[in-house]
Each structure stands twice: as C-alpha cells, then as structure tokens.
Amino acid sequence: MKSRDVIVVGGGAAGMLAAISAAKSGAGVTLLEKMERLGRKLRITGKGRCNITNTKPWQEFSMHIHPKSNFFKHSFYNFSNEDTITFFESIGLKTVLERGERIFPSSGLASDVVNALTAEMERVGVEIILNTRVTDLTVAGQKVTEVVTINTKSNIETKYCATTVVMATGGLSYPLTGSDGDGYVIAKNLGHKIEECFPSLTALMPKDYSKELEGLQLKNVEIALFIAGDEVQREMGELDFTNNGIEGSIGYKISRKAVKALINGNRCLVYLDLKPALTKDVLIERMRRELDLLHNPSINQLMRKLLPYELISSFLSFVNLPADPLKAPKREVTIKAIAASLKAWKMDIVTFTSYERAVITAGGVSLDEVIAKNMRSRLYDNLFFAGEIIDLDGDTGGYNLQIAFSTGYMAGLEAARVSKQAIIT
Ligand SMILES: Cc1cc2nc3c(=O)[nH]c(=O)nc-3n(C[C@H](O)[C@H](O)[C@H](O)COP(=O)(O)OP(=O)(O)OC[C@H]3O[C@@H](n4cnc5c(N)ncnc54)[C@H](O)[C@@H]3O)c2cc1C
C-alpha cells in the first residue's frame, strides 16, 4: 500500500492550497482528484475571469460569510485576502482590483489561476494523481487509516495510507465539474454531522414570470425579501432578469434565505424598488410634471420617462390601473398606483434553480465538529476539512474562493504539522 504524510482529496481551490501549504511545510503530499483535470470549477468562476478574493477589511468581509463568520476568522487571519494576493503575485499571477473591491487575475483568465496553482504544486513537489475518485476512508478508533480510491478510467481500486488526510471535495453545485457531493457521503459515513445542504447564490423564479423580462439588467435597484410576512433582508445593487428568473448580485444575495424558506414551505415575496433614490411623493410630483408637459399623453409615454423600454409592459401588467387611466379624475389614482408599484413591485417567488446552476452549496460538514483554529475534525485526530464541503459559504464578490483558499491553507499547514508530530512520536 502506498503511504504518504498528507493526502489531499480534491483538486479544487481548497485542495490545491492545502497541498501547497502542506508541501511547503516539508510534508510529502499526494493530491487525489477524480476528474481528468484540476480545478474544473475554478476555470468557470467569475464568468471565466475568476474573482479570486475581495479586499474588504475583516469587519466588512465577515458580513458576507454565512452562517457563522466567526468560525472563519481564524483561517482568514492566518491566510487573509491580502495574503492571497501576495501569494498569487509570488507565484507569477498578476492581479487587478476592480469595482466592489474584487480581485481578478490581470489576464482576465480563470485558467491562469489554475495553471499558476498547478505549477506551484509541481514546484513544491506535490504528487498529483488524476482520474482517481476517493470512495471511502477507513478508520480505526479516532484515526483515518486508509484512503480507498477507484480509478475512473480503469475501475481499479487502490488504497493509500496517509498520516493525515485533508478532505476538500467541494459541494454539490455544478456537478459536472466534479463537485457532486461525494465528500458529504464519506464524512457522513464517518459519523460527521452534515448540516442540511441547499443551493445558494442561485436564480429565483417569480410567479407568472414574463419572458419579456429576460435579458434585462437593472442597476441601483433595491430588493426586499419577505418570508412568511416578515421582512428578513433588504439589498441594493444590480439585478438581472434571466431565463431562470431573478439573478444578479442582489438576486443572489437574497437567494440564500429565499431558497431555505421555499424548502421549508414558507411564502416568499420580494418587493422591488425601482426608484430607491426617490420617495413616493417625489415620484408622484415628477409624474404630474411629466404629464403636464406631454401633449395628449399616454401611459406608455409617461413610463418611457421612468423606466427602460423593455421593462414597461411587464411592469404595467402588475399595476392595477383604472379604465381611462389618464382622464380626470382617474389621473391621480393612476399616478399613485404607478408610484406605489415603482417603489414596491411585488413578486411571489415560487421556485429556484437547483444545483445544476447554483453558484454555491450552503450547508455541509457541521462547524460544531471542525476545530476552527486548525480545520481538524473533532472526531478523528488526523482528518481535516477545507473549502465548500464545510458548512461555510459567502456572497458573490470573491468571498467563496477566499473561504476555500484560507481554510485550505490552514488545513494543509496543520495536516503537515500533525503528520510531522506523528512521525517524531
Ligand atoms: C459558475 C461559478 C462561478 C463562481 N465564481 C466565483 C468567483 O468568481 N469567486 C468566488 O469567490 N467564488 C466563485 N464560485 C464559488 C467557488 O468556485 C467555490 O466556492 C470554490 O470553488 C470551492 O472550492 P473547493 O475547493 O472547496 O471545491 P471545488 O472547487 O468544487 O473543488 C472540489 C474538487 O474535489 C474533487 N472531488 C470531488 N469529489 C471527489 C472524490 N470523491 N475524489 C476525488 N476528488 C473529488 C472535484 O472534482 C473538484 O475538483 C463560483 C462557483 C460557480 C459554480
């Protein structure tokens, strides 16, 4: 049986960082990846550009981490967003700061991130084994003793022996990239508690969604999420209407709570404020002025002054307009109805896009059973977890990759340290 100091399971963002930090600490490291290439998911991040991290200071950064940002604090401080930039620059990947404090590779190519990480793993001596799916971890007492694998091409089973093991198998989203939930099954079989998984950063589909909205992008709008009648979240920013419903940065932000509510059978409403900078009264005044200026005005002419053309007919179908809407005395009723809908366009969210196109999986290996300061399992002395497999996730904006990089770095470091100790004693 082959034996190594550290075995890392999964060649994604977290696994590659774990392998690098363990090897740099002097450990003999083998990385096992089931796909034929490393970092399949990394290659599609940031629409192929890879938003590596976000430069916000911890106080702000932490507000984008769920469900317990404090758990992440230790690994973040050990390998921070600044360390991530310094690390990538040190391995030859130039980076650039963009709007929203987001960091990308200067080349604009996510594949360059994978190439840089692969080259660094080779440089520090990580043994990379592809097409190798880990199917089980054998344990004895509080120790993992064997890593059981199957070659995805030949179906040949091989067992590896390692002093320490890092599980970095990702979540369930975009399963074609290789992250299809294997890690949860393995961790569960070992007795680890798995917090309920659900897709997050995903599209939300409103009832009676109009095809006319598809392709429309709105900037500077506000969205309020109501679950079972209570307002639970309010966000301002960009919103995209796609063939799957509501997406874009604020759509994704509310999706975590919305998806969970839908799964639990709760009513989920969103109210869109299309004019967050104006009060209802100011809008009413403005519409009165616009109508006074128009010769023989129509509703469409009025709406052209207020909304992008493509939005108008869908929007109007939600407004309760009287007959002859612009004739006195109905004009005031119409103006007030339009103003009310511009400030609170109600949408009943009925479903969501599942893992096949969700950016992230929420839930995972329970934080109660992982030690935050070293990413070690509380059940097994030589088992570590890193990345999306853990019950930690972030908003869009580079937060999820930072979770993977920081927890991966920490897990690798500690796995190497524990393996050295085991060899000495
Ligand atoms: C479309 C999309 C865009 C995104 N864009 C961004 C972005 O720009 N910025 C950002 O911060 N986050 C982004 N994310 C989220 C980010 O990609 C993930 O949070 C991150 O990749 C998680 O890293 P990981 O290493 O934990 O898991 P993964 O990257 O999923 O890697 C897990 C690896 O483990 C392997 N594996 C799984 N099971 C086994 C097994 N049994 N045996 C061996 N190997 C196994 C998989 O094949 C995979 O290579 C995006 C996600 C998606 C889907």
Secondary structure blueprint with pairings:
Blueprint: E1 2-9, H1 13-24, E2 29-32, H2 40-48, E3 53-54, H3 58-61, E4 65-66, H4 69-78, H5 81-90, E5 95-98, E6 102-105, H6 110-123, E7 127-129, E8 132-140, E9 143-151, E10 157-167, H7 182-189, E11 194-200, E12 204-206, E13 217-227, E14 230-242, E15 245-247, H8 248-263, E16 268-273, H9 280-293, H10 299-304, H11 309-317, H12 330-343, E17 345-352, E18 360-365, E19 370-371, E20 376-377, E21 383-385, E22 393-394, H13 399-424
Parallel strand pairs: 1-2, 1-10, 2-7, 10-21
Antiparallel strand pairs: 3-6, 4-22, 5-6, 8-9, 9-10, 11-18, 12-17, 13-14, 13-16, 14-15, 16-17, 19-20
Residues 9-15, 32-35, 40-42, 44-46, 50-51, 133-134, 168-170, 173-174, 178-179, 182-183, 359-360, 387-388, 398-401, 404 line the site of flavin-adenine dinucleotide.
Outline of the structure:
By secondary structure, the protein is an alpha+beta fold. The chain has helices at 13-24, 40-48, 58-61, 69-78, 81-90, 110-123, 182-189, 248-263, 280-293, 299-304, 309-317, 330-343, 399-424, and strands at residues 2-9, 29-32, 53-54, 65-66, 95-98, 102-105, 127-129, 132-140, 143-151, 157-167, 194-200, 204-206, 217-227, 230-242, 245-247, 268-273, 345-352, 360-365, 370-371, 376-377, 383-385, 393-394. It has 2 domains: 2-199 and 361-424, FAD/NAD(P)-binding domain (3-Layer(bba) Sandwich), CATH 3.50.50.60; 203-353, no CATH class.
Describe this structure in words.
The protein has 2 domains: 2-199 and 361-424, FAD/NAD(P)-binding domain (3-Layer(bba) Sandwich), CATH 3.50.50.60; 203-353, no CATH class. 36% of the residues lie in helices and 29% in strands. It has helices at 13-24, 40-48, 58-61, 69-78, 81-90, 110-123, 182-189, 248-263, 280-293, 299-304, 309-317, 330-343, 399-424, and strands spanning 2-9, 29-32, 53-54, 65-66, 95-98, 102-105, 127-129, 132-140, 143-151, 157-167, 194-200, 204-206, 217-227, 230-242, 245-247, 268-273, 345-352, 360-365, 370-371, 376-377, 383-385, 393-394. It has 425 residues and is of the alpha+beta class. The strands form 6 sheets. Strands 1, 2, 7, 8, 9, 10 and 21 form a 7-stranded mixed beta sheet that branches. Bound molecules: flavin-adenine dinucleotide. Flavin-adenine dinucleotide is lined by residues 9-15, 32-35, 40-42, 44-46, 50-51, 133-134, 168-170, 173-174, 178-179, 182-183, 359-360, 387-388, 398-401, 404.
